[in-house]
Fold these 2 entries.
Entry 1:
Amino acid sequence: MNKLFGLIILSCLLFMGGQAQAATPLVSVDWVKNNLGKEGIVFLDVRGPLAGKTKADYLRGHIPGAVWTDYLMGGWRVANKDKIVGMLPPVTKLEKLIGGLGIGNNDHVVIIPNGGKALDVGTATRVYWTFKVLGHENVSILNGGMVAYLKDMDAKTKKPVNPLEKGMVKVAAKSFKGSLQQAMIINKADVSKASKTDGVLVDNRPHNQFIGINKHPKATRFGTIPNSKSLPENWLTKNGGGMFSSPARLNKLYTYASIPTKGSQINFCNTGHWASLGWFVSHEILGNKEAKMYDGSMAEWTADNGLPMQETAKIN
């Protein structure tokens, strides 16, 4: 009996120590190094043009075993039937994309952004949000991305000390089945209701776009959704870089912006990229499970001339 009990305890410890252990939203460089080559962990390199990088940068050096995906052109976001860009693709399309990257439902996906600035970290948070929308909970982001991974240099060779691999990693396709979390999908009717009923709307675009001085090319009108609060995406990382600010500092930022960290909240931007950073911070780091993201954002909202705008600057 004692022997059987011991085997059960050992099995539990092994289970907790492997990929079956619940994923945390953020992992460190040390965590990555300690889990290189482990079965059931897939490192997903999402470096691309938003970070000033190309596939060639991946080929020159990446985390050993990491697979590369093209965030902008690879099928992670599409135009919908109304020609609104940057929208969530059909589940079947995402299943094929993700399975083709060698990712199965039992794998722990660790997303690797470049980590140079908040804009490129948004690539990781958008892909992270996509996995969550598909019901895949076992997903994390490398805090600081490749910039953090390459930071430590050998004093003599002046080369990174952490392991790197060159060339393309070829993987066998796996079966991946998504389970659409419909409650995470917000449409313009939901946003309109929140705007009219004192709901918490968080605009994660740059402040100049929030007040209506400038606008994104995909937004047809200046300003923001009425009754929104401004929380620019580059406030959410340290000095607008690739590392997320601490929960304590984030709480202070939310207080400064007059945004609660509990209760119903909708994050938006232009096309659902910057807003994914806001959603990630609220929902995953600060633990507000009522926070949601408006995928269509200003690209969809401004395309409907029947929906109101709030233009603080009033110079256009």
Entry 2:
Amino acid sequence: MDLAYDQGLVISALVRGYRITRRPRLLDLLQGATRIFELDVHDGGVREPLPPGSGVLYSELPGQSIPGILDGFMSSLLGLYDLSVETGDPAVGKLFRDGSEGLKTMLPAWDYRGRWSWYASREYLCPPAYHWLNRVLLEVLARLSSEPILAKYAEAWKTENLSPLGRAEIFLGFLITKNACRVRNAPGA
């Protein structure tokens, strides 16, 4: 189960449903939807506190090593943003800001040489589809949070910035790191 990711998507879907239909029942369903973001992973939530002043991470798979899966974390931030904008709830806004700060803090851990993104906690280089998703989500969050560092990474991760040699490096790096991950996680390994 992908907790932070799933929760973020459901929150966004319900907020959008409310915006279209104006049915109050949809907002009622969101009461308590952010509780999981307030609880640390050790208490059944998805919150991974970082050192003071560094924000938090919201874990897609609680119990995994930090920093975890980037797209799941960013999807959870989008859900929190949508709910914050729709309700004006300062507590939800704080959850979004805390997560945005955590994203800024941990982005270097997901960055491969200023050109590509890592999957999970540097398990392997992201396949192109995941990398594209990471870059687009980062670009959106940069606009929503007005954080220049997020925009800087989103720009650096554009595939059109890669030379043919850079593309070959990413492709070979992905093959090597992905297969090494398979070997590490093979039954009996």
